[in-house]
Amino acid sequence: MSMYQLAVRRPVAIGMVFLAIIVFGVFSFTRLPVDLFPEIEAPVITVITTYPGVAAQEIERNVTEELEDVLSTIPNLEEIRSESLDNSSIITLELDWGIDMLEASDDVRDAVSRARQQLPDDIDEPIIQKFDAGAIPIMIFAVTAEESYHELETILDDDLVASLNRVPGVGAVNLFGTPVQEIQVQIDPVQFEAYNLDIDRVSDIIGAENVSVPAGRLDIGVSSYNLRTNTEFADEREIGDVVVAYDEGRAVYLHEVASIRTEYEDETSLSRVNRGRGVAVTINKQSDANTVTVANDLHERLPEIQDRLPDDVEVSVLLDTSEFISGAINNLSSVILYAIMFVILVVFVFLHRWRATIIIAVTIPVSLVMGFIYLALTGSTLNIISLSSLAIALGMVVDDAIVVLENVMKRLEAGDDPSGAAVRGAREVFTAVVASTLTVVAVFLPLTFVSGMMGFWFRELGFIVVVTVVTSTLSALMLTPMLASVLMNHKDDQKKRSRAVQFFVSSFSKGFGALENAYGRAVRWSIRRRKTVIAGALGIFAFTLAMIPVIGTEFMPVSDNNQVQLEAELATGRSLEFTEQVIYELEEIITEEVPELRNMSIRAGGTGMGGANPVYQINGNLQLVTLDERDRSVFEIAEVLRERVEKVPEINHLQIEAGGGGAGSPRPIEVNIIGRDFEQTGVIANNLIDSMRTIEGVRDPRRSRGDDRPEFELNLDREKLAGSGLNSASVSNIVRGTMDGLVATQFRRDGHEYDVLVRYRDEDRHSLTSLEQVSVMTPDGRQVRVSDLGHINEVMTPPNIERFNRERFVSVTAGLHDRPLSDAVDDIRDQISQMDIPDDVEIEYGGDIEGQEEGFSGLLLVLVLSLVLVYIVMAGQFESFRDPLVIMFSIPFSFTGVFLALLITGTSLSVIGMLGAVILVGIVVKNAIVLIDYIRLLQGQGMKVFDSIIEAGKMRLRPVLMTTLTTVLAMFPLALALGEGAEMWQPMAISVIGGLSFSTLITLGLIPVMYAIFHRKRIAAE
């Protein structure tokens, strides 16, 4: 017994099965966490090594190169990048996708251990970090204050951080930019020398006196007591009372040679929020938490926290990633709802029966909820990839039901009873339905084999579409016949129609009947003029090839995520006070030019990954109101802002980025210049930047290596050091401690810890003379000045040194506005070809240029594999080699429609657009399969080949047009790209709409002709 016979005979049982699927699907949907993208474990491991007080070139030679030598031998290594900065080395390892990252981390840890003996003894232990998407904050609060500004760290620790940590799903809360108190021990160098002291020794003494350690046990009678030695400092006075030396039997106290006071750390950064001084509070969620739920709970907690804070302390939301996520998810949900409405409308217009429309409509929720079940079973999230996958599948899930129900209705109109019509109608199209579904599977399954980050996205997309389409096929072959046998009676709907509806139905039926007859005549004419039709088809295909160079290409569309990023660099060496004045000017410009501004944060200096940012570098983040609240896009706002900021004379380098939130980069252009010589690669990079500024659409070209900056270099005389019993390391430590200070211990007060910093007084450490006068104690107790051990030179050094696969390089990156990436890259290649590049310098392209090449090559491989699999499926289903070839002729002309649609809409061909072209392979053949299958069915009933072609064309015209319209209209809301995150899928929707529409016209005209050509001998014999 076939599945459709079983469904018709047991309607209640089958109905309950599909009802259970819907219930389980709805239950799964309510439990799905919401996020922007699927959780991705990127195969990236970073090794960070800190070496305080050492310049970038020394870091490269003594740390980075040593580590690279061993790290380059680990298994599954794809590429290795490094950046050597002052005080730190950052090495990034990119491994093969899909490997066990725990095992890879162990391999890296073992390699670092092997290299440890070659590294300097006084470096900090290397830190090994795996890429963690959870390390990216989901929210950032801005806290501003006036009188309470300097107490913010204590206030926020007590009243904000603790409260936020109690919110379910919050993983970590961190403060950035808060003024930090410390206990400063400011040494008088004259007194120090008088008592023959040095900073290392005093720092050790202070640390040794501030302890609380176990001292054993004491048994007294039958009782036993723990002993503890507790000499922790209770206040600053006790620190000053520490004995640091003896002078002729008299104790010398610390307060005699230094002043002890509570101060704030030296200001090396400036943080401003909404034109006031402020700090940032970042919130990270737990890995399994729902981003939107956590953000909503944080918003609810905020008023309660605000009430507990001092009146002048104000907390505001600086960044909330859940807004973009919610906007994107809601937008896609609306897209799906609109698509469902369009699909139902098309079905009703063509079938003009409410019962038939309801039967088709039931297929939609049954299929879609199976996608939710799949997400729940695989532990995935509800994100823009999964929802977009459902939107893509939506137009296809009703195709099979339309084909089945349309044929059932023909059997009803022919006089069959509902049960007989349901069984016979399903049987006649069974082969076509199964074959068309298998072709969709043959296209989407290969997507799951794409490698890299795109592979993770395509994998979820491929599996969800396959699951929903297979479910829709089962529904079409079981639920649709069952419902048709119960609900359908070709006279019932007619009895209840109003005159207006009856007039519409009658007019539509007459009009469509005339269209069928006209189409039949057109097919007859085409078959008799086969050469003319083939020549026209070849001309169209030649036109397709000619369009390819005209359409620009790009990697991925960039989304309007309501943010603009600004980075401005002043002249090297500018002070924080000078930078602050420039920030005031920038704030004025931004306020004037961006009325859509919601929040603004600007920062100079501070610490980043691996080291400190220079105080002459300004970083700004502008958070705008949502897209539906403004008339301008972030890209337009960025252009206007750039025109004003470029005129600020103090800014040497400017970089303004708009948008993000997807795989595409706001700075898609990256040219890597690989060479050992700093000066040589620097000149080439500067020349390239000058050339790129003249290229249309290119914005803010900038090189990755900063300008050389002045540095004082202390050159020690090894002979003099040896004569004094000293070495370079010990003298360097003394100098560093004198200038920057040494943290001797931590002082506890009121539940908070403060560093105790030992260093010279401010007036004794801000000149070259002060540096030269620093005293170093020799092992025999003598004091030797630094000036007696060496000399000081001023040199120019690079602030950072980058390496790629163990070779030095410098990259030039740039943004792009209103121009295809391929066109800009062609111009850049032309400019580089005119430059004099030495033989020992290589030019390579990275960023979106590299991503585009990898994405296109991966999808091209999928396309070829899909074509082969589609042919194999059809050949096996039809038991024929020729008929599948006829069907395959519909595919090339879908690409014509793709290129035409992209050209008309001014859209570049991106990886997502090409994905649409690949998807079309599985969609366009469905119409041809329906047509060819019916031709074969009629021939099996004894009809002649020529007549079967004409008759099948007329009989299958309605389902072909219906399935085409449902898919096209389902994609239409995506193509409009209205709302957050919609830009990402717009090229794919445009590709599918254009390709399917054009291919349908070609299918209806060319496929009958090609079938006649392949069977011309039989036609001639008849």
TrEMBL record:
The chain crosses the membrane at residues 12-30, 332-351, 358-377, 383-408, 429-449, 461-487, 533-552, 855-873, 885-905, 911-935, 956-976, 988-1014. GO terms for molecular function: xenobiotic transmembrane transporter activity. One of its GO terms (cellular component) is plasma membrane. Coiled coil: none annotated. SUPFAM superfamilies: Multidrug efflux transporter AcrB pore domain, PN1, PN2, PC1 and PC2 subdomains, Multidrug efflux transporter AcrB TolC docking domain, DN and DC subdomains, Multidrug efflux transporter AcrB transmembrane domain. Keywords: Membrane, Transmembrane, Transmembrane helix. InterPro entries: AcrB_DN_DC_subdom (IPR027463), Acrflvin-R (IPR001036). It comes from the Bacteria. It holds the Pfam family ACR_tran. This is Efflux RND transporter permease subunit. It comes from Natronogracilivirga saccharolytica.
